[in-house]
Amino acid sequence: MTLHLPCIRGVAICLLIMIAGCVQHRPLDDLSRQAVAFMKPGTVSEEELLLHFGTPTFSYDNERILTWRMGRSSLNYDELTPAMRPLSAHSRDRDTTDWQGTKYDLVVVLDGHRRLQRFSLLPVHGE
Amino acid sequence: MLPRWQLLRFCEAGFFFSRISRIAVASGPFTYLNGGKLKRRILMLRSHKITLFLLLAVTLIGGCVPVIAPDSPVGQLQPRVIAPDRINSLQDGITTAEKVLLELGEPDYAWDRQRVFVYCWATNDVASVSLTHLSRPDGYWPLFINHHFLLIAFDDAGHVSRHQLMEDDSSHRIRLDDLRREWTAAGAKP
């Protein structure tokens, strides 16, 4: 029995389509651990946080509490980066519910010396 | 410029009709030439093509009919759901705004100079099947959706002074503007 070229081609196309979703990406748990690995309470300053994560999406109590919406990076899927562009300066009474692409909500509390006091990384949407 | 989801629909439709047209041509009058040999050959080829087409179709639409469990989040714009146990842990006069933020995350709305936090999310009313081609681009039907509003007001010391969980069905009887008027001092956007 000989295999015809169209048949081989068809099987190849089917295989390609079927294995297209089989590429494994790193699980979100790993990414979240990696994203906050440098955040040691008492040692990390506000400046370092801003340099690392960019402008926060929400701030409270004279920017003592800051939040970032984190998602998989569009450039590197195996990296967790801020998922949403920062809001305008008038964020005290904002109106937005855009959580698209967000996987974690990072909430950071700073102490009186503007250093990291505590934080929480809240899962938003699993995979 | 068409949105990405519409372009995808066009590509899928084009693919589908190209397959159908090729099959139609294969079963046309030209197949009776050459004493029927050509017809048999084309019929054999057609069966391969149909098999291939079905395989491809099943593979391609495999993820298009997800079954959604009750109380699961809907859509991509509001994937966050506040768990009931976290809401139950809120205590008026005791829980601080810092604790609220650390446990619930940032609010969807912050009104009245951040004296009122509003968390909004939507869940499926019943277990349902979501047909991607018939649903809205954000991935859900407006039917069978429960809308949830958790409103938390803070006093001057930053403690929870009042909180309330409200639920609405797809008829949208609860309006955000009404809630804003009720929960803020000014009663309107500053």
Word description of this protein:
The complex is a heterodimer of chains A (127) and B (190). With 127 residues, chain A is α+β, with helices and mostly antiparallel strands. Chain A contains three helices and five strands, in the order H-H-H-E-E-E-E-E. Chain A has helices at residues 5-18, 28-35, 46-53, and strands at 58-60, 65-72, 80-82, 104-110, 116-123. In chain A, a hairpin with a 4-residue loop joins strand 1 and strand 2 (65-72). Chain A starts with a helix and ends with a strand. Chain B is an alpha+beta fold. Chain B has five helices and six strands; from the N terminus they run H-H-E-H-H-E-E-E-E-E-H. In chain B, a hairpin with a 5-residue loop joins strand 5 (145-154) and strand 6 (160-168). The two termini of chain B are 36 Å apart. At the A-B interface, helix 1, strand 2, strand 4 and strand 5 of A face helix 2, helix 4 and strand 2 of B.
Structural key phrases:
heterodimer, A: about 130 residues, alpha+beta, five-stranded antiparallel sheet, 5 strands, about 25% helix, elongated, B: about 190 residues, four-stranded antiparallel sheet, two-stranded antiparallel sheet, 5 helices, about 35% helix
Largest interface: A-B, 35 and 33 residues
Element-level helix/strand string of chain A? HHHEEEEE
**Uncertain spans of chain B, ≥5 residues at pLDDT below 50?**
131-140
Q: What is the structural class of chain B?
A: alpha+beta
Topology of chain B as a string of helices (H) and strands (E): HHEHHEEEEEH
Main pleated sheet of chain A: 5 strands, antiparallel
**So how many helices of chain A?**
3
Range of strand content of chain B: 15-25%
Please bin the fraction of helical residues of chain A: 10-25%
Global mean pLDDT of chain B: 72
The Rg value of chain A, from CA coordinates, equals 21 Å
Q: In angstroms, what is the radius of gyration of chain B?
A: 27 Å
Mean pLDDT of chain A: 80
Beta content of chain A comes to: 15-25%
Oligomer: heterodimer
What is the CA-CA span between the terminal residues of chain B? 36 Å
Q: Could you list the spans of chain A in which at least 5 consecutive residues all have pLDDT below 50?
A: 89-93
Shape of chain B: rod-shaped
Record field, number of beta strands of chain A: 5
Number of helices of chain B: 5
Could you say which structural class the secondary elements and strand pairing of chain A correspond to? alpha+beta
